[in-house]
Write a structure and sequence with these properties.
single chain, 2 domains, mainly beta, Immunoglobulin-like, 2 helices, 177 residues, 3-stranded antiparallel sheet
Length: 177
């Protein structure tokens, strides 16, 4: 009932703005699952619809809990290998994932300097709930000696013939070279 009222209110606002002659741009809004708090207490994440300003659902994303996705990483000379472990692999959305990708991540050095890496990893196949994603490092010599933190806020699940599903969380992994 609340969703219908919210949708009706959103449509009324959009229509009134259009009637006033105000230009509107395509804005997307995240509408969380109303059972999000309940699901998080149970140890499972929740879905959220991505809706445009007209109230149409244009996508879906998933917010995971720490119990569902475990991430570890190891540094090598030209890349960082990130191992993503999905738990439980017999439940949706994890049972439907065929490949994972990390689109954006941050590497924070000891001084606090942040390097943002975008689109540096190719999708890796998920086998038995685990995928090893290689993140290419931009510098030819890799990282300088020291301690780093790899910060990942989302992973992208790919499934053949389906729209990618963004899985949000907050993962920080210590790295040393």
């Amino acid at each position: 009932m609340k969703k219908i009222i919210s949708l009706a209110l959103m449509c009324a606002v959009v229509l009134s703005l259009a009637a006033c002659g105000k230009a509107h741009t395509e804005e997307l809004q995240i509408v969380p699952d109303p059972r999000a708090a309940e699901l998080s207490q149970e140890g499972s994440g929740h879905y959220a619809d991505i809706v445009n300003e007209d109230g149409a659902v244009v996508g879906t994303q998933y917010y995971s809990t720490p119990q569902e996705v475990e991430i570890t990483a190891q540094y090598s000379e030209d890349s960082i290998t990130v191992q993503v472990t999905l738990k439980p692999i017999d439940k949706v959305p994890f049972s439907e994932m065929s490949a994972l990708k990390i689109e954006t991540c941050e590497i924070i050095d000891e001084s606090g300097a942040v390097s943002v890496l975008e689109n540096t990893a190719e999708a890796a196949e998920v086998t038995n709930g685990t995928a090893e994603v290689k993140i290419a490092l931009p510098e030819p010599d890799g990282l300088k000696d020291g301690n780093y933190i790899l910060k990942i806020d989302s992973i992208l699940s790919e499934k053949k013939g389906d729209q990618p599903l963004a899985i949000f969380g907050s993962w920080s992994i210590a790295l040393t070279k």
